[in-house]
Amino acid sequence: xxxxxxxxxxxxxxxxxxxxxxxxxxxxxxxxxxxxxxxxxxxxxxxxxxxxxxxxxxxxxxxxxxxxxxxxxxxxxxxxxxxxxxxxxxxxxxxxxxxxxxxxxxxxxxxxxxxxxxxxxxxxxxxxxxxxxxxxxxxxxxxxxxxxxxxxxxxxxxxxxxxxxxxxxxxxxxxxxxxxxxxxxxxxxxxxxxxxxxxxxxxxxxxxxxxxxxxxxxxxxxxxxxxxxxxxxxxxxxxxxxxxxxxxxxxxx
Length: 253
Prior knowledge:
- This protein has helices spanning 16-27, 42-48, 61-75, 102-127, 157-177, 202-209, 221-233, and strands at 7-11, 31-36, 52-55, 80-83, 94-95, 98-99, 139-144, 182-189, 241-244.
- Strands 3-2-1-4-7-8-9 form a seven-stranded parallel sheet, with helices on both faces. A two-stranded antiparallel ribbon has the order 5-6.
- Helix 1 (16-27) packs across helix 7, helix 3 packs parallel to helix 4 (102-127) and helix 4 (102-127) runs parallel beside helix 5 (157-177).
- The chain is an alpha/beta fold.
């Protein structure tokens, strides 16, 4: 799919990997609608990119449908969605105070897995009404998993389960949507310089990335963006979860 004229919805686009992706899409000739929390810098980011901002809490599932409708209307359609919404709450399966509360587990799964599926299913519905391009393609869905899906650390049971679900969805969703010409992939990053890691001390960063093959550092948001754009452009990338991790494998804890 060509970047020139691409209409992309970027969830979580006010910062980090999603913002870098929105910036690269616009630099390559596309247009973006940014979905993020009302308290985020989403409006300022969208204004700087000539796009639109749509306040959204992705865990409000019914409301997300209306927000996505508005974003698609502002773009005049949708060709790609990049979904990075997520987060973790620490807690072991069994801790000092007893079993992990189900409410905590569900909250993490809702934020990461259920919201990802919700956005994907709704975006796919809009994409299904597109006229196919010369390759028969109508749209691209990019979800965000994590290497924690494969090597979850102690205390990240809910996060690992949620991100594992996102990874597991890739092929099935791609098969579900293949007859419509809609591709689906997930990116599974290691630790990146976003959110709480931005101000992390250098020695702590080195300790966290010492097991990487190369480079032994936190990932940069632009590196996620380059992979996301490559997925959009390359029609043979489909049904996969692609690790973006410098060859790192997480230890138990």
